[in-house]
């Protein structure tokens, strides 16, 4: 059931003596809707149940149906009778998150977006927070699940400055992809520290990245593409909220991963060595200054030990974002 708070509800969550004040903006669990189409109109013009607009091409056979799921209640199920690539999208009316975010409780400057996903067969699915409703609008944050011919992976996407970026949370093969299971995806956009965080607890996946912009949440969009008769995509338990502080498990996951890497010398003059004792593979290192501006990116061929040339950096403090097979590790570097 969609619930947009007319008078914001303050929830108190206690976790290991840690208290986080959370403000719920929007929830959707589909339980109040009858079995059948979420919206019988598929041309993105007339809101259906819960205010959801549904879009698809004129030739598309994809449908978004409310179905009963054992142990979960109702869920949104997306399928198609097409044997070729098909899809559809689901969004709320223009700018509804802008209003909610701009009227949040003072101090709740961390935006949290979460949903549950289930995928079978072939699909390219993403749950997105857009900065605007308009077509082509940039994504503030998203987590995408892709299971296609030779591409099986989970991505975290975000707006860095004026350009969209993505992080591979994990790559799979067709035989190892986590099909036919419910997966909870969590994203945090921290407007205090200008960092975005991705977390998938059941798969133990996490990553973080900095951003440098002032765009705010505008709208929700869920898109399912590359569907055929083998495909099943399900969505449930969508929630958008505002937090004062990051939950401990997000900070702990990032700190634990970063602690596994040794970086020396630090301070450095010309070259810095980065190693780890657990044979984690480094794929890429991105250097940011303390203002969050990206300075350089260097790719590596899944190496456990790397050398990074920092000779051209001016004296100062920098943040190194190490993209690894286990997520993103952030290390602080001082250049002499």
Automatic annotation (TrEMBL):
Pfam families: Por_Secre_tail. Keywords: Signal. Residues 263-334 form the Secretion system C-terminal sorting domain. Residues 1-22 form the signal peptide. The keyword Signal applies. This is T9SS C-terminal target domain-containing protein. It comes from Paenimyroides viscosum. The lineage of its organism: Bacteria, Pseudomonadati, Bacteroidota, Flavobacteriia, Flavobacteriales.
């Amino acid at each position: 059931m969609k619930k947009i708070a007319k008078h914001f509800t303050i929830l108190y969550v206690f976790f290991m003596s840690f208290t986080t004040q959370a403000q719920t903006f929007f929830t959707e669990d589909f339980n109040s809707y009858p079995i059948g189409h979420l919206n019988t109109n598929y041309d993105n013009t007339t809101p259906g149940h819960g205010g959801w607009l549904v879009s698809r091409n004129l030739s598309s056979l994809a449908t978004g149906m409310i179905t009963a799921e054992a142990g979960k209640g109702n869920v949104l199920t997306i399928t198609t009778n097409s044997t070729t690539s098909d899809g559809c999208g689901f969004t709320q009316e223009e700018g509804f998150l802008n209003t909610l975010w701009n009227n949040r409780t003072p101090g709740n400057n961390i935006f949290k977006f979460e949903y549950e996903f289930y995928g079978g067969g072939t699909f390219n699915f993403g749950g997105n927070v857009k900065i605007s409703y308009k077509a082509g609008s940039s994504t503030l944050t998203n987590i995408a699940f892709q299971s296609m011919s030779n591409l099986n992976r989970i991505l975290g996407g975000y707006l860095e400055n004026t350009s969209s970026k993505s992080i591979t949370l994990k790559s799979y093969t067709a035989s190892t992809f986590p099909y036919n299971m419910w997966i909870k995806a969590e994203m945090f956009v921290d407007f205090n520290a200008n960092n975005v965080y991705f977390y998938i607890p059941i798969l133990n996946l996490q990553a973080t990245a900095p951003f440098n912009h002032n765009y705010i949440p505008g709208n929700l969009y869920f898109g399912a593409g590359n569907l055929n008769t083998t495909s099943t995509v399900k969505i449930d338990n969508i929630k958008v909220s505002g937090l004062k502080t990051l939950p401990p498990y997000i900070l702990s996951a990032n700190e634990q991963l970063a602690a596994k890497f040794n970086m020396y010398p630090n301070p450095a003059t010309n070259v810095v060595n980065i190693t780890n004792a657990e044979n984690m593979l480094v794929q890429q290192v991105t250097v940011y200054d303390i203002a969050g501006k990206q300075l350089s990116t260097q790719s590596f061929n899944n190496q456990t030990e790397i050398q990074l040339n920092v000779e051209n950096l001016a004296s100062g403090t920098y943040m190194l974002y190490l993209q690894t097979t286990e997520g993103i590790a952030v290390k602080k570097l001082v250049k002499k």
